[in-house]
Specification:
The complex is a heterodimer of chains A (about 110) and B (about 450). By secondary structure, chain A is an alpha/beta fold. Chain A has helices at about 45-55, 70-75, 90-95; strands at about 1-10, 10, 20-30, 30, 35-40, 60, 80. Chain B is of the alpha/beta class and about 450 residues long. In chain B, helix 14 crosses helix 16 (about 350-365). The chains are: A alpha/beta (about 110), B alpha/beta (about 450).
Chain lengths: ~110, ~450
Amino acid sequence: MKVLIAVSRDDIAPRFDLTVEVVIIDVDDGVVFPEPRELLLSEPSGDELCALAVNEAVDLVVCGGIDEVHYEYLMWKKITLIDGVVGPYREALKLLADGLLAPNAIVRAAAQ
Amino acid sequence: MFQNANLSNLLDGIPHAVVLVDKNLSVSRMNRRAEALTGRNNDEAAGIPADFILRTSLHPFPDYFKPVLQERQIVAHEGDVLDRNRKIVSVRFSISPIESNSDDLLGAMVILEDLSLAPYLQEKGAGSDGFDGIVSLNQKMQEVGEQIPVFAGTDASVLIEGETGTGKGFVAEKIHHASKRSGYPFIKVNCGALPEPLLESELFGHVRGAFPGAENNKPGMFRLADRGTILFTEIGDLPLTLQVKLLTVLDDGEFFSLGSTRKVAMKARIIAATGRDLKEMVREGRFREDLYYRLNVLRLRLPPLRERVEDIPLLIDNFVKLFSSGNLAPHFDKDARSVLLDYSFPGNVRELRNIVEHAITLSHGETMKREHLPEYLLRGSEEDKYASIWGRGQKTDASDAYGDGRNRSTKWDDVEKEMIIEALRKSRGKRSEAAKMLGWARSTLYRKLKHHGI
């Protein structure tokens, strides 16, 4: 399963339409493949991010808040969404691999 | 820092969303309006950077706090936030420092003033068109318009009756915005949209551990509405057990969240809306008589569009202006206009609005002709239209709630479902094409697919 995560440094970006960084990664059978691709957009654009998700044939998008228009567009493109997620994206990925990541989850950083 | 319990009442008394942040810009406390806006409660949000909870357009977020935290200035910025319903809401952020008695900086207070309310307030001040923004030459509708400010002046429950698409939600919102509660939330609850246990939790909220899966405290609609207004749409669909609970809340003015032993005061005003004949439902034992009379303190009945045909040209012009982007609004030619004037609009004003939007989209700013109208309007006589939409020559049952010959349109929900299926069949399952055929935005089609369980 190909996953796109809208990020802001180490965290999931608070807003999809204002995101410039994305991580694309494969997650299969509970395993997170080790080499994520990190992409930087020239400017924040929800439309560009949607186009990227479609062109990359992403199966699932993990993001913070997403506005209704982009949410429905991705749903229409049959891309699953887990939105409203807050917290460090690597921890969120672990939860995702374990099948435990739900919309609106608040993910806490793992204790050091 | 903000541990004083009295702070809650103080913050809840402010008619805007308020968030207190510490020096690291993490959330320390939110008032109820902020909880309603963000969909997060205080327990969840505490300690999390405010930007991640508020989801603002202020970027980079810390830069906006520099003059506040470094120079102790009060600043204001306009921007937006993404709310719990995935809507972008325009707000004015007022950020001020919070200092201790000994002048130590404790953090900052962010007040978020909802600017989307501004047009309502301006309209109220200007008294725009004599009866509060309702477009009508019809006497019954003008009476409704005159009743809105009267109803807004009281706290009594209101029951709004009318077919689908007649504007029950619109009128309820008008009453709210014209009332002294307008600075507080307007919360809409669709009683028919959720299964009973979920609806109960949505209304009354729950505490952590109240039932399996309740991992956090949830405030519920009654608490989120605070001193605002709650609109119960499709009140006739409210299950009998919840009817009893709602009646108890209305009588006692307080309620318990699920799993909690602490009573919470209910301060919101109740407006109920229905497309059904509640009196008939009371007779059949499907709706509690005591609740009916409790809700029916003030009553409004919105006439269907076929009873206010004089308004159709007015509404057409109004929607054309609304959906035209340029200064020169396109117009319908004589032929297209006569198709519209001959149509019975079972979906009422909402259907007319959708048809105008459809025609404007297809005409690309040129004169709107017959071919720009949705196809189902052009299928010969009305009987043919219904026969072809329904495909089985089926008309309706005898549940003519108002006894005014509206039997066909009381089944509008069924007609709409069949129209969607027909459009999907014709487009071979392509939803964007189906949406185009129906004259709807894709998002509207998705919502309706969900509503009809297609």
